[in-house]
Amino acid sequence: MTIGRKALFAAVCAVAVASVYAAQPVLAQIGHDLGVPEARLGWVVSAGQLGYLAGLALLVPLGDLVDRRRLIAGHLALTAVGAALAATATRTWVLLAGLALAGLFAVAVQTTVAYAAALSTPEERGRNLGVVTSGVVLGILGARAAVGGLAALWGWRSAYVALAVLLVVLACLVLRMLPPDTRTGRATYREVLTSLGGLFREPLFVSRGLIAFFLFASFGTLWSGLALPLAAAPWRLSTAQIGLFGLAGLAGALGAARAGRWADAGSASAVTGGALALLAVSWAAVGQVSWSLWLVVIGVVVLDFAVQAVHVSNQHLLTTAHPDRTSSVVGGYMLFYSLGSALGATATTTVFARAGWTGSSVLGAAFAACALAVWAVARRTAVRTAMRPAESPAGCAEGGTESGRPGLTHRHARAGCPAALSAKSPCAPGS
Predict the structure, then answer these.
(1) Which of 2, 103, 353, 397 is deepest in the core (most CB within 10 A)?
(2) Residue 264 has pLDDT above 80, yes or no
């Protein structure tokens, strides 16, 4: 994991994920151009999210079978095809098809994250994931400013043309700069999918997945709906001005890149709880869009800091628990992410049409509260399990302990397994 490779991994994540979220800051412009009613604009974003969801289940697990370098390059090229189709669409269904295709193969992001985790040593995995995941945040939020600017100059279609070109360039760089990813195992695609299904019976995976579901439902509620009140009275901001709000979110999210170091130190669960509390509180500021843009900016910074901190902590815990199948575990985890984002994108536009931004803010805060409740229940259950030495290793579901406590090995501390608090409680690797 040289500096050059980290930068390329981050760039791949940024551009690929931008193809899924590029429509958010220009929803109003797309709706006006293609005649899409305001209440249905959420489906423009959801089309990419639903394609992404299918790719997570069907394509990302391929990373545990084939050369991930070639897989990433191929998926980037096909994402470019989807972006080009969206750029030339003259009918709504063609646009939705292009966005769904782009979303389907944009899962190159998760194959990239899994490859980065696999190339990292255990001691640096959290830091590297923090850097690479920052690329994802750069694509989701930084692209808002770029897309908004391009749309103001040449229309929303120009953003998808630019994305298609960048995706092709990155596909070539991946083949040139990344090392081959040789596979020696003989597992079949069916066996990998079966293994992926088995993850849904593991407490750690399910709890972190549910946290991700509500986390990104809250995130999607903000970023799929914020353009609507900003474009309306009293502000009536242009697409370029709306795109600048992505820079505020970017500042907050990149500040949370340090979450990887905290996870390496064994504090992933504590970071998760604190960040989720911040997420819920941030909506109090974001909801003041009718009279104060500065409060909205502050809320956006805090919200994106919280989302990034939780996301990095989740991925660190899961890839540490399953180092031999990082593609499957990341792909499965991101299923929750995609479903949550799609829910937030669809719900926020519907609620906004009926209850305004106040209703959307209450919705976003409710999603954050649900995520915090899942974390609290999972943590409490894990602590109770840790107090029962005879309990099976399957009880090692959640973490947040510090590595300095008696009976807690370095391996268990990084995996966030509280059952290791008891010297009599056996905690198998990957629990």
Answers:
(1) 103
(2) no
Residue 368 contacts residue 283 (beta carbons within 8 Å): yes
Report the sign of the C-alpha dihedral through residues 108, 109, 114, 115, in that order: positive
Distances (CA, A) of 183 to 64, 66, 68, 333: 8, 6, 9, 23
Give the whole-angstrom CA distance, residue 302 versus residue 159. Answer: 28
Mean pLDDT value across residues 397-410: 38
In this predicted structure, which of 64-68, 104-108, 224-228, 381-385 has the lowest mean pLDDT?
381-385
5: Cα separation from own chain's centroid: 21
What does the DSSP assignment read for 328-351?
A: HHHHHHHHHHHHHHHHHHHHHHHH
- In contact, 409 and 416? CB cutoff 8 Å: no
Q: What are phi and psi of 114, to 5 degrees?
A: -65, -40
Question: What span, in angstroms and rounded, lies between the C-alpha atoms of 388 and 81?
Answer: 55
H or E element at residue 270: helix 268-286
More confident residue, 394 or 45: 45
Query: What's this model's pTM, rounded to 2 decimal places?
Result: 0.74
In order of 122, 259, 402, 415, 429, the CA distances from 410 in angstroms are 11, 18, 9, 9, 12
Question: Which phi-psi region, left, alpha or beta, contains residue 407 (left: φ > 0; alpha: ψ -120 to 50)?
Answer: left
Mean pLDDT of the chain: 81
Q: Are the C-beta atoms of residues 19 and 79 closer than 8 Å to each other?
A: yes
Please report the sign of the dihedral spanned by the C-alpha atoms of residue 156, residue 161, residue 164, residue 167. negative
Instruction: Specify the higher pLDDT residue, 285 or 380.
Output: 285
